[in-house]
Amino acid sequence: MGVCTGATSCVSGSILRYLGPMSPNDVQVKKKSKSEVTIERNVRNKRKCITTVRGLENFNIKLADASKLFGKKFACGASVVKGPADKDQIDIQGDFQDDLVEFILEKFKEVAKDNLYFLEKERRTPAC
Questions:
Q1: What is the rounded distance in angstroms from the CA atom of residue 40 to the CA atom of residue 42?
Q2: How far does CA 69 lie from the centroid of its chain?
Q3: DSSP track, 9-33
């Protein structure tokens, strides 16, 4: 059998044992550091665009309510769909990438402008 000294986790055979208590604050700090909203514009049929918003659920924003607000503000179709890795995202019909940043900052005070990013050609750039 294996003996662990000073380690936080120990592997003995196929059993993983956790030796120290973990505070709930550690989990929240990790979750907050990964919280970001990415806005991506996808082109379909050469002239039509779809603006995709990911990450609003990390700020405790209901995606259904947000998509309804986006649809009313921009007078277009907006829906919640499953994205890559089975995460929900909002698809907005049309190119509203720049206007969307201002609207998110105005309506959702939980989202800071440091947490907004554009995703263009697999590169992430700050929105503000």
A1: 7
A2: 18
A3: EEEETTEEEE-S---HHHHHHHHHH
